[in-house]
TrEMBL record, chain B:
The keyword Ligase does not apply. It is found in: Cell membrane. This is ABC transporter ATP-binding protein. Keywords: Antibiotic resistance, ATP-binding, Nucleotide-binding, Transport. PANTHER family: ABC TRANSPORTER ATP-BINDING PROTEIN, ABC TRANSPORTER ATP-BINDING PROTEIN NATA. It is a peripheral membrane protein. The lineage of its organism: Bacteria, Bacillati, Actinomycetota, Actinomycetes, Kitasatosporales. It comes from the Bacteria. It comes from Streptomyces hydrogenans. Belongs to the ABC transporter superfamily. Pfam families: ABC_tran, DrrA1-3_C.
Length: 522, 299
């Protein structure tokens, strides 16, 4: 077993390094799902209310595309429906970050070299990363089980295993991605793209099929988690499918890892030009962010095409169900159901675009802390110009990817180019506000810059699951997305758009002012 | 005497780049062996092959009597490695990392020696990785390596970033390791360090070994500078074998001569009558500059 020598020590190293992030991920993901019975139970406290919700939600194709069908109108079943996909996606995101962090990132930084010079087997680094992910997903599953056991142990177990299992599927996807590229950032991008594709496949499948049985859904690991049907007629064999995927991907990753040198990858890095044209801070930042921008843009265009194609059918299925209409409108709809569907999708893209924008702003923070900004700023480049170089691709790039999403939606829908593109751009003030929050944190409180992600994540959670929880409007209003007009729709209201734009500008200006005044984080 | 490291005809390519092109390296057990060459010559690639991090394309490689690829784990328990650029984890302290490296070697560290080395290198082991300077990150890896009881120390430009005082401490540590019978492979660009520490050196260029031997042997293979003032005309020094860069200014002669062809040149000078004579052995710098810059392999 020399190939595994040192696994224990490396696993302890991983857990020690992530002593904060792993518990936080586990608590957020597991705790969110575990809080479901409390929050949903208060809202739908009678069997009749739950049955009505279940019927209306399953009948509605755009609700299904977000959450999947409802398999049981018990309280446990509603929690599994409302939080299952969200929990599985969160567990997958956390898992892929953890695995890349302890495999490719270690190799990219050169730390793996010194570790592997110890009595460390060739399979130990990957094994310890997967064990760290397993620890995370086990903790998530335990929290989910503990929170839901009161609603029936079998369903709780099925949901816990489905969520933890999806986490492990994407942990092993990340393990594969890490073999193919020398860049940890790109490995995370590949694995994240796979997760996005899985989500879109499931959404597209579920929008056309109320039983979760569409072939598209079955192509998606996120769809498998749904098809475990926790609290419905639990289908335990789907868990075996998940386990088989994890095992197959693990074996493949080990096989690939054994066939390459430490630090090398299967996608070779091509040589670059011998002479360069980069002359300005802006050009450099754009060059650094180009890959992310293209990836997000392509993903948004593709996602837009898929969801746009579903919009036509959305109006048919809701029918006259008053409850469905009401909840649907609370989700962001206007009276016209097609518009409401498109508005829901546009707002989903808006919240995702905020993740891009925050990531692009915080890229500047990474440049600073890694020491790469130091020689630039030691030259004739001023701080503001350097910062502007990164903020332009962040703020402008958000506009571009939203346009890509809008274009995809309109193309898929087959018309209304003007209103849909306008609706997509109307998300910008909220996206910019979150980017402004990240800029302010980076500029004024650089040690807390990572909280920019938390702010964007909070808004995403409020937008995705907040409305169904009947949270007070004051809480929902924390998110800038809550203030946007529902577009496409009859009456665009300009006041909130202008107010949010002004707020974003003020936050950004305050952040830049802080950046000018503080020490560089070197 | 057995060999701790024995490499013959090692080849390693990365795509179309031939990083190692038939490299040979022999390090005897118990010696301090200098591993020299210009940037990009293949030193670090060789070391990574020796550590089993890269798989050799072809050639025979033996490390401590084993195969560095197949027996990597067992061999790593017996060696310690210090890279030229140490990267640490932002949120782990230096002391934690030192102990981690020790545990990963499987043998742990000698606590007393660990404490002594931290003292000698003036390292604060409680600081977190992100707050160390380059030199201090280097010290973390050095303390971990010297506090282990490894038979073989593989040091890849280990002193980049150390101040001169710490460089002294480092040299003492290497000498102590040799006195305890340890073997050291030292890749370095600091020639004074190589000169004081190394028993033998190997010089590599473009993936091949161009010279191996003790410094005395290497010196012998290179040129000596001779400056002489003569009583009479110098005669046809040009025609003597091994004479280079001859310059005659009246009765003053300056030339360089292959060290093994010194005798006939001195005889010719004596014939002319010597008023004064200075003969300088090649400096280490000249030795290396010649090997680094030459296009052909020295004989």
């Amino acid at each position: 077993m020399t190939a595994l020598a040192g696994t224990g020590t490396l696993t302890r190293l991983a857990l020690r390094r992530d002593r904060l992030t792993l518990p936080v991920w586990a608590l957020v993901t597991g705790g969110l799902v575990a809080s479901g019975p409390g929050s949903l139970g208060g809202l739908y406290d009678t069997a009749a209310a739950r049955a009505e919700l279940a019927a209306s939600m399953t009948a509605n194709s755009s609700m299904r595309s977000l959450y999947g069908p409802v398999f049981s109108d018990s309280l446990g079943g509603l929690v599994a429906w409302r939080f299952g996909t969200f929990g599985a996606v969160l567990a997958a995101v956390a898992s892929l970050i953890v695995v890349v962090r302890h495999t490719r990132e270690e190799e990219e930084t050169g730390r793996q070299e010194l570790l592997s010079a110890g009595a460390v087997g060739r399979r130990a680094p990957l094994t310890s990363a997967l064990l760290a992910a397993l620890a995370l997903n086990t903790a998530v599953a335990l929290l989910v089980f503990a929170g839901l056991a009161g609603q029936g142990a079998a369903g709780a177990l099925a949901l816990a295993l489905a969520i933890g299992g999806t986490g492990m599927v994407f942990a092993t996807v990340a393990a594969l991605a890490a073999q193919f590229t020398e860049s940890a950032r790109l490995a995370k991008g590949i694995a994240g793209g796979a997760l996005g594709l899985a989500f879109v496949l499931r959404a597209a499948g579920d929008s056309g099929d109320a039983s979760g049985g569409s072939a598209l859904t079955w192509l998606s690991p996120v769809g498998w988690a749904e098809n475990v049907r926790a609290y419905g007629d639990e289908r335990w064999w789907v868990l075996a499918l998940i386990a088989a995927a994890v095992a197959a991907q693990t074996a493949l990753a080990y096989g690939l890892a054994a066939r390459r040198d430490v630090g090398a990858s299967f996608l070779a890095t091509r040589p670059g030009p011998a002479a360069g044209r980069l002359a300005t801070a802006g050009a450099l930042a754009l060059r650094l962010q180009r890959g992310a921008l293209l990836g997000w843009g392509a993903g948004f265009l593709l996602g837009g095409l898929v969801f746009g194609g579903m919009a036509e059918g959305a109006a048919d299925l809701v029918g006259d169900n008053e409850k469905a209409r009401e909840i649907f409108e609370r989700m962001g709809g206007q009276a016209a159901l097609t518009d409401a569907f498109l508005a829901t999708m546009v707002s989903l893209f808006g919240m995702l675009a905020a993740l891009y924008a925050v990531g692009a702003v915080l890229r500047a923070h990474t440049e600073e802390t890694s020491g790469r900004a130091e020689p630039l700023l030691a030259g004739s480049l001023g701080r503001l110009r350097w910062a502007a170089g990164h903020l332009v691709p962040a703020f402008g790039g958000a506009a571009l990817i939203l346009l890509a999403a809008g274009l995809g939606l309109a193309l898929g829908f087959g018309g209304s180019y003007g209103p849909v593109l306008g609706a997509a751009l109307a998300q910008l003030p909220a996206v910019w506000t979150l980017a402004g929050v990240a800029t302010l944190l980076w500029g004024a409180l650089p040690r807390a810059a990572g909280a920019g992600w938390a702010a964007a994540g909070l808004c995403l959670a409020l937008g995705w699951i907040g409305p169904a929880l009947n949270l007070p409007q004051a809480v929902l209003n924390v998110s800038p997305f809550a203030h946007l007009p529902k577009l496409p729709g009859p009456e665009p209201t300009w006041t909130p758009l202008l107010a949010l734009t002004a707020l974003a500008a003020a936050l950004t200006a305050a952040g830049l002012a802080g950046l000018r005044r503080r020490d560089l984080q070197v | 005497m057995t060999n701790a490291i024995s490499v013959t005809g090692l080849h390693k390519s990365f795509g179309r780049t031939h990083a190692l092109d038939g490299l040979d390296l022999t390090v005897a057990t118990g010696e301090v062996h200098g591993f020299l060459g210009p940037n990009g010559a293949g030193k670090s690639t060789t070391i990574r092959v020796l550590l089993g991090l890269l798989r050799a394309d072809s050639g025979a490689v033996e490390l401590l009597g084993g195969d560095p690829w197949a027996d990597a784990v067992a061999l790593h328990r017996r060696l310690a490695y210090v890279p030229g650029d140490v990267t640490l984890w932002r949120n782990l302290s230096g002391g934690e990392v030192i102990d981690l490296y020790g545990r990963l070697r499987g043998t742990g560290l000698d606590r007393a020696r660990r404490a002594e080395l931290i003292e000698r290198f003036e390292l604060d082991p409680t600081k977190k990785g992100r707050t160390y300077s380059k030199g201090n990150r280097q010290k973390v890896a050095l303390v971990a390596a010297f506090a282990s009881d490894a038979e073989l120390l593989v040091l890849d430009e280990p002193t980049s970033g150390l101040d001169p005082l710490m460089e002294e401490v480092f040299q003492d540590c290497v000498r102590e390791a040799r006195d305890r019978g340890r073997t050291v492979l030292l890749s370095s660009h600091i020639l004074s360090e190589v000169e004081t520490l190394c028993d033998r050196v190997s010089i590599v260029r473009k993936g091949r070994t161009v010279e191996t031997g003790s410094l005395a042997q290497l010196r012998h293979l290179t040129r000596t500078s001779v400056t002489a003032e003569l009583a009479g005309p110098p005669g046809d020094l040009d025609r003597l074998a091994g004479v280079h860069d001859l310059r005659v200014e009246g009765r003053r002669v300056r030339l360089q001569v292959d060290t093994d062809k010194l005798d006939p040149v001195l005889a010719a000078l004596l014939t002319a009558g010597v008023r004064s004579l200075t003969s300088t052995p090649p400096t280490l710098e000249e030795l290396f500059l010649r090997h680094y810059a030459d296009t052909e392999v020295a004989s």
